[in-house]
Amino acid sequence: AYIQPCRPIVSAHPPRLPLPSENRYTMNDATQLYLVERVLNEDGSRKGLVIDLTRISRVVDVVPYFGKSCPRRWTSDTSVELAKELLVNPYFDKESFYFFHANSVHS
Predict the structure, then answer these.
(1) E strands, 1-107, where?
(2) How far apart are CA 28 and CA 60, in angstroms?
(3) Burial group, residue 59, by CB count within 10 angstroms (0-12, 13-18, 19+)
């Protein structure tokens, strides 16, 4: 399978004394969804990988993150491709919901 990996955005203000139930990843205040960013090559292009299908455990639905307003050139067909940051949608299916909320301080 061909994938373009993303990584969680680490919070600028992590907990001082992290507890097992606390995490250090950035959650969007308005949506309460986690933010991820694309992994880039040194030249700024997106990293692409070919991996064995057995390494994929679940599909994750993402939504483009655009801040206070959506850029005019984005459309419903291009927004995920053009976004540098994405919101992980834990409501995509019940398995995703359980995975994200069973391990979250916000459950």
Answers:
(1) 2-3, 6-8, 35-38, 49-50, 61-64, 85-89
(2) 17
(3) exposed
Q: Backbone dihedral region of 67: left (phi > 0), alpha (psi from -120 to 50 degrees) or beta?
A: left
Sort strands 61-64 and 85-89 into parallel, antiparallel or unpaired.
antiparallel
pLDDT category at 87 given cuts 50, 70, 90 is: very high
Tokens in use for 100? 């994200």
* pLDDT tens digits for range 3-59: 999 998 887 665 554 444 456 778 888 888 889 999 999 999 999 999 999 998 888
Asked if 60 and 96 count as a contact pair (C-beta separation under 8 A), the reply is yes
CA dihedral 79, 80, 85, 91 (to 10 degrees): 120
pTM equals 0.74
Asked whether the beta carbons of 88 and 38 are under 8 A apart, the reply is: no
Whole-number Å distance between alpha carbons of 48 and 107? 33
